[in-house]
Amino acid sequence: MTDIGLALGGGGARGIAHIHVLAAFDExxxxxxxxxxxxxxxxxxxxxxxxxxxREIGDFMVKSFAHRRDxxxxxxxxxxxxxxxxxxxxxxxxxQLNVERIVASFLPDAVPKTFDSLTIPLGVMATDYYRRLxxxxxxxxxxxxxxxxxxxxxxxxxxxxxxRVLVDGGIYNPLPYDRLKGICDLVxxxxxxxxxxxxxxxxxxxxxxxxxxxxLMMQSVIDLKVRxxxxxxxxxxxxxxxxxxxxxxxxxxxxxxxxxKDNVKRALENAIEARRLGVTTRAFVEVIxxxxxxxxxxxxxxxx
Length: 304
Fold this sequence. Notes:
Elements: E1 4-8, H1 18-28, E2 34-38, H2 40-49, H3 54-64, H4 68-76, H5 83-88, H6 99-106, E3 122-128, E4 133-137, H7 142-149, E5 159-161, E6 164-168, E7 186-190, H8 206-228, E8 233-236, H9 250-257, H10 260-276, E9 283-286, E10 302-303
């Protein structure tokens, strides 16, 4: 039996595409022996590690972000309970949204409070701000770990956990498949970081430019890792047309990235069969185009 490890990268709303990779596992009757994730990858991974199917995660995402008004109400409900707490959280200063409250509000009820209650082991990547290093959180309370992994500077305040100040896991390790090397027979990595897209004649707003610059930095880290020590299967859905905060387009993102599922299934089947025969392969999986209508132009899992 092949032990498969799955790494889910960060990318905000683009990470909704992770669901199709999880669906490929479900349809093949496979389960990763461990999942590691950064930011949205950690959040989606937590749902799957809690025993929620890919289909259920997708339905939950679409329902949660179907209507702007309902989303605004839910975000309003995450406000501090008192003015004193509001001031303690940073008041009106930019980048002081409490990510732990937001994550807790949008997690499915089936996600347990602690890591030891998960059905699949989960590693959550965060960045230790003052120690200047990456850290993998895999024990204790889950919400603070997920909040730390998603605490993108300029939007969310850092998270204090176990005496450390933690920020977005993507700062140091946006696609943490290296954490699975040596402990899994087959390592699958899903890169949804993408990059900023738009009209060069338009100057992005300040926050958008900060987020886009972070994406460029993270992509340079990912590209270097892939060149020097690639995973066995690298999956890159075409997500660049969508912005990091495009959660209200959840249903559209799911439809647009659906073709990647069958490619992942083929890549997994090929890799497992190759290992049974004692052959080492690497696969790059990408869908050309951004909608099911463009699936005729998609590449199949090309072995390198």
